[in-house]
Design a protein that fits this description.
The protein is of the alpha/beta class. The chain contains 11 helices and 15 strands. It folds into 3 domains: about 110 residues, Beta Barrel (OB fold (Dihydrolipoamide Acetyltransferase, E2P)); about 160 residues, Succinyl-CoA synthetase domains (Rossmann fold); about 45 residues, no CATH class.
Length: about 450
């Protein structure tokens, strides 16, 4: 019988019938109870609150219409997950229900996870395809032409696979002189994606160090057929980006014709099989011979036609040349006669006689004009002299007039009021001067001063 709380004396150390739990004990008991009750199970739900920790652990919640359960997937379990976890994705998880003591919450520790209704690899393929397409890795404008009859070919595949044998067999049959550079890589398994990407990058780096005329012109990347899991390395992002970044044009040859990979979408050209890739790179030698023979025959026929047309064209040109020479000679003769006429007109002796007459005429005109100018200037000079004579004060004096100056040196006397009795004056007459003393000053001949 469970005692009532009021009947328990917690401080009665003599009584040992009551067990007092710690929080950790409760948490531990709940943990064991959950694990023992449910064990491992499959759980369906929708991912929410997804987050990846730097440690590599994944934390998220699984929810349905009315409940939410915390979930954790540790790094050792999620490293093989092919698709990307994201909110809203419905999944089926395998794991065990447990409790996380420090936070007193229960959760599922996920060991495996699959998308509901679709395989994990298919979902991973669709997610990566959508991402790379959005970035433009599949764009047509990025695709490059495969060179015709390349001298050097690079191959990235397994040394032990049938793909390499098929490629070399086709190349040897079609054109044995072709040079092949093989950079081996694992094409299956966990390390395959990184190994293939490394091999593609290494071939590009090696190619940059070669002289331009010795460089690899095209690269075949692929492997023989197999299961989806066997071919999966060619659906990895690392391989897709290595192909996209390759400076050497890439032919993707993965599996059989029915197989399709992300590498096929990124590559410049997709071949159904490795053998087809080799056929795309190098045409059949006999076909080339036949084609060359056909071109030679067409060239001979074209050359014969060109020669005949050329001979006819030469004849026509010679006839046109003869006509042109005759016309040119006639035009030259006419031009020569015209030049002779011009030279006669421009004869220096004739010009000298002509210009001598012009010069004499000009001299005569200058002399006449100078005489006329002299007479005009002489007449103007005489007129000015006469004017000066008429204005000469001495000429006025010759008519009986005189000029009176006040002494000493105060200028011409024009007004009698300037003088007074006793002042000395000087009078200038035509011949000589008269010094006088004023005895009386009158204004207007009447008034005395």
């Amino acid at each position: 019988m469970i005692p009532k709380p009021e009947e328990i004396d917690l401080f009665d150390h003599a009584k040992k019938t009551v067990h007092i739990y710690t929080v950790s004990e409760i948490a531990q008991n709940v943990k064991h109870l959950l694990e023992d009750t449910f064990g491992v199970l499959w759980l369906e739900g929708e991912i929410s609150n997804y987050g990846a920790h730097p440690s590599g652990h994944l934390y998220f919640s699984l929810k349905d219409q009315s409940a939410v359960l915390s979930a954790v997937m540790f790094s050792w379990a999620n490293k093989n997950v092919k698709f990307k976890l994201e909110n809203g994705l419905k999944v089926i998880c395998f794991g065990k229900i447990s409790a996380y003591g420090p936070q007193s919450k229960y959760q599922i520790i996920v060991e495996k996870i699959e998308p509901k209704g679709i395989g994990s690899r298919q979902l991973a393929f669709e997610q990566l395809t959508k991402k790379l397409q959005k970035e433009g890795l599949f764009a047509t404008e990025h695709k490059r032409q495969i060179p015709y009859l390349p001298a050097k070919i690079g191959v990235v595949t397994s040394l032990s696979g049938a793909a390499l044998k098929d490629i070399l067999k086709v190349l040897d049959r079609r054109f044995a002189a072709i040079q092949v550079i093989i950079n081996p890589a694992q094409v299956q398994g966990e390390v395959a994606k990184d190994d293939i990407a490394r091999a593609i990058s290494d071939l590009n780096r090696f190619n940059r160090e070669l002289p331009l005329k010795e460089r690899i012109e095209v690269m075949i990347v692929g492997r023989g057929g197999g299961s989806t899991e066997d071919l999966w390395a060619f659906n990895e992002e690392a391989v897709a980006r290595a192909i996209y970044n390759s400076k050497i044009p890439v032919i993707s040859a993965v599996g059989h014709e029915r197989d399709s990979s992300i590498a096929d979408l990124v590559a410049d050209v997709r071949a159904a099989t490795p053998s087809v890739a080799a056929e795309l790179v190098i045409p059949e030698k006999n076909d080339l011979k036949d084609r060359l023979q056909e071109l030679q025959e067409r060239l001979r026929g074209s050359f014969a036609g060109i020669v005949m047309e050329s001979e006819q064209a030469i004849d026509d040109s010679l006839r046109r040349l003869d006509t042109a020479i005759a016309h040119s000679a006639e035009r030259s003769s006419q031009a020569f006669e015209g030049l002779c006429g011009k030279l006669a007109l421009l004869n220096p002796s004739a010009l000298l006689t002509q210009y001598q007459g012009k010069l004499e005429n000009a001299v005569r005109q200058i002399y006449v004009r100078m005489q006329m100018l002299f007479r005009l200037r002489k007449s103007a000079f005489i007129t000015l002299i006469e004017k000066l004579e008429s204005l000469n004060p001495l000429a006025i004096l010759s008519r009986g007039y005189s000029i009176t100056f006040a002494l000493p040196g105060t200028g011409v006397v024009k007004d009698s009021s300037r003088l007074k009795a006793g002042d000395m004056i000087k009078s200038r007459v035509q011949k000589g001067e008269i010094i006088s003393q004023v005895t009386e000053v009158r204004r207007n001949g009447r008034d005395k001063v």
